[in-house]
Automatic annotation (TrEMBL):
Domain FMN hydroxy acid dehydrogenase: 3-363
Principal EC category: oxidoreductase
Quaternary structure, from the entry: Homotetramer.
Keywords annotated in UniProt: Flavoprotein, FMN, Heme, Iron, Metal-binding, Mitochondrion, Oxidoreductase
Name under which the protein is recorded: L-lactate dehydrogenase (cytochrome)
Organism lineage string: Eukaryota, Fungi, Dikarya, Ascomycota, Pezizomycotina
Family note: In the N-terminal section; belongs to the cytochrome b5 family.
């Protein structure tokens, strides 16, 4: 008994529907975040402390919010970020997101730990659709090298190395829901295994020894642009520039890793003025993700200097609740919100978005 898709009017609506229709384990894995989920809530709430300073009497009859990310032209300034285990939410998994991304001309980032195989997700690509690879670095670097070279050979246009997960965060909702669904195993004496949750089961793919010293090696094995996903302070953005990578994603992994990691938009507001003062703002593409639910969030991030934003859970929820049609509608809603938002702040193209259009005086006051 779920609402009609046409009754979903914004991205949050998909979350409420998904919560009711998803299996407890899947809901637990998708919705959980670290510890008390304070960073996850903050990701969303930080945007509420930024207000616009709109311009009036601008001819906004025609607005265009297309842009480029890592050299790829996209119709809207967001991308589908990597989220593992797509088949927990929908039997077809990540390829559902591939089809929707194609329909709306946005980029999909393919997770290392997808439910579909990497090749299935690449095979689902249509026309000149662009995909990136999210990489969890294996401690066996030969495996990592094979994954990277294969992705490049299959046409991936960006390598996003996740750097915020030397160990997986503790996601208690995930642990509990696993416990409920597989409670019977406790009686079989396998309590520790079953209480670990889906996230723990995949942690063996992660190498805690990964460091800055490894980055030149990645540059030597691929020509794909390299982006570090999960950077959380301006000092590390500067190091990333020094390492010669093409981008960073300011991100705390949707609040799933370090509890009390700052929201990406707050790090962004701190980062861009420093880069500008050092003349480095054009040396790197800065992306953000976490808590983006409205086109106004996207526009705020772009005003502050982001090249684009990643969106995770909303597309998973839309997919889990309504399949392709859900993700399609979620993207269409963002499109419509973007058009309205651009008009109402008085901009007709993304290159007009700039810091004078936002008031961040309250951003730092939590
Ligand atoms: C993620 N994220 C993630 N990141 C990554 O680098 N590799 C991964 O495998 C995953 N898997 C994953 C699963 C699920 C269920 C979620 C919700 C998130 C983090 C993701 O790429 C992104 O940083 C956040 O999801 C952004 O926050 P929102 O949009 O979900 O609030």
């Amino acid at each position: 008994n779920k609402p009609l898709l046409s009754q979903c009017y914004n991205l949050m609506d998909f979350e409420s529907v998904a919560k009711n229709v998803m299996k407890k384990t899947a809901w637990g894995y998708y919705s959980s975040a670290a510890d008390d989920e304070i960073t996850m809530r903050e990701n969303h709430e930080a945007y509420h402390r930024i207000w616009f300073r709109p311009k009036v009497l601008v001819d906004v009859k025609n607005v265009d919010f297309s842009t480029t990310m890592l050299g790829t032209k996209v119709s809207m300034p967001f991308y589908v970020t990597a989220t593992a285990l797509g088949k927990l939410g929908h039997p077809e998994g990540e390829v559902v997101l591939t089809r929707a991304a194609h329909k709306h001309s946005v980029v999909q980032m393919i997770p290392t730990l997808a439910s579909c195989s990497f090749d299935e997700i690449v095979d689902a690509r249509q026309g000149d659709q662009v995909q990136w690879l999210q990489l969890y670095v294996n401690s066996d670097r030969a495996i990592t090298e094979r994954i990277v070279r294969h992705a490049e050979a299959r046409g991936c246009k960006g390598l996003f190395i996740t750097v915020d997960a030397p160990q997986l965060g503790r996601r208690e909702k995930d642990m509990r829901s696993k416990f409920v669904d597989q409670g019977s195993d406790v009686q079989n004496g396998q309590e520790t295994d079953t209480s670990q949750g889906a996230a723990r089961a995949i942690s063996s793919f992660i190498d805690p020894s990964l460091s800055w010293a490894d980055i030149p090696w990645f540059r030597s094995i691929t020509k794909m642009p390299i982006v570090l996903k999960g950077v959380q302070r301006v000092e590390d953005v500067i190091k990333a520039i020094e390492c010669g990578v093409q981008g960073v994603v300011l991100s705390n992994h949707g609040g799933r890793q370090l509890e009390f990691a700052p929201s990406a938009v707050e790090v962004l507001a701190e980062t861009m003025p420093v880069l500008r003062s050092m003349g480095l703002e054009n040396k790197i593409e800065v992306f953000v993700d976490g808590g983006v639910r409205r086109a106004t969030d996207i526009l705020k991030a772009l005003c502050l200097g982001a090249k684009g934003v990643g969106i995770g859970r909303p597309f998973l929820y839309a997919m889990s609740a309504y399949g392709f049609d859900g993700v399609d509608r979620a993207m269409q809603l963002l499109h419509d919100e973007l058009e309205m938002g651009m008009r109402l702040i008085g901009c007709t193209s993304v290159d007009q978005l700039n810091p004078s259009l936002v008031d961040t005086r309250n951003l730092g006051s939590h």
